[in-house]
Specification:
Layout lengths: L1 E9 L2 E7 L10 H8 L9 E6 L7 E6 L9 H14 L5 E6 L2 E8 L2 E5 L6 E4 L2 E5 L3 E6 L8 H10 L9 E9 L2 E8 L4 E3 L3 H13 L7 E6 L2 E10 L2 E10 L1 E9 L1
Parallel strand pairs: 2-3, 10-11, 12-14
Antiparallel strand pairs: 1-2, 1-17, 3-4, 5-6, 6-7, 7-16, 8-9, 9-10, 11-12, 12-13, 14-15, 15-16
């Protein structure tokens, strides 16, 4: 089989995108997804995403981690899918699409995509960290010397340790730069390594910083390894609403691969 694909990236978080409106992709082939994401023997990506038809929304987003398994919501992947749908002519400047965690609204202007995330009502306080779900589970903790440390080792220890174990959690290490700006490095489960950016991760960090009273802003700048993202939100009665993840989503190349 010869498969047509597109490669997109959002602040260095990169994805193989496939137009699956004709239902051509073997969705249960975990090994194929893993092969396509492999940076040595395949295309190379942090994940693979299918764009599919949906009866109620403009399109459906189906996301796989690079390990080949279908996974929870990916914020940067969602932004790239909006850019891809715009490129294909499926949408124009705004859209509502369905993902594994429900419906999402988004707008696109050039290469800038604003993606609305799900409301968050629960943030768990623990000694030394907080935990919350922004479409994917996230552990958020401050880290001294964030510029230079073994994130793969320390991230894996938290990801596989108590209370997460095999199910795991994404792990975000944070350094405060100012009231409305933070540095973030993220270890992603499913990738099992650091990624240059994580959309649901920076969303979790922004809300966690407000929850911990580390920021008074309603829009936070997040410096990640792959660039800069912004997260805006409204706080109302112990709940975060109208959460938007903002940043660029760019097509890198397109091609065909035999598989």
């Amino acid at each position: 089989m010869t498969l047509s694909f597109y490669k997109y990236q959002g602040t260095g978080n990169d994805f193989v995108l496939i137009d699956n409106r004709q239902d051509i992709f073997p969705k249960n082939d975990t090994k194929l997804v893993h092969h396509l994401c492999d940076r040595k023997f395949g295309i190379g990506a942090d994940g693979l995403i299918l764009l599919e038809n949906d009866a109620d929304c403009d399109f459906k987003m189906v996301y796989y981690n690079s390990d080949g398994n279908e996974s929870s919501m990916c914020g940067n992947g969602g932004r790239c899918m909006v850019a891809f749908a715009n490129f294909l002519g499926v949408i124009q400047q705004e859209t509502t699409f369905i993902a594994i965690d429900g419906k999402h609204y988004a707008t696109i202007d050039g290469d800038m995509v604003h993606l609305q995330m799900q409301d968050v009502a629960t943030i768990e306080d623990h000694e030394g960290y907080v935990f919350l779900d922004t479409g994917s589970p996230h552990h958020v903790t401050f880290k001294e010397g964030i510029e230079k440390f073994d994130i793969k080792k320390e991230g894996a220890e938290i990801r596989y340790g108590a209370p997460y174990f095999e199910e795991g959690s994404n792990v975000n290490f944070v350094k405060k730069i100012s009231d409305a700006e933070f540095r973030v490095r993220t270890y992603e489960r499913g990738v099992e390594d650091e990624t240059l950016s994580c959309g649901t991760g920076v969303t979790a960090v922004a809300l966690a910083m407000h929850h911990l009273q580390e920021t008074t802003a309603n829009e936070v700048v997040l410096q990640v390894e792959g660039g800069t993202l912004k997260v805006s939100y409204e706080y109302d009665t112990n709940s975060y609403k109208n959460i938007f993840l903002k940043g660029k989503a760019t097509q890198v190349f397109k091609g065909e691969i035999s598989c």
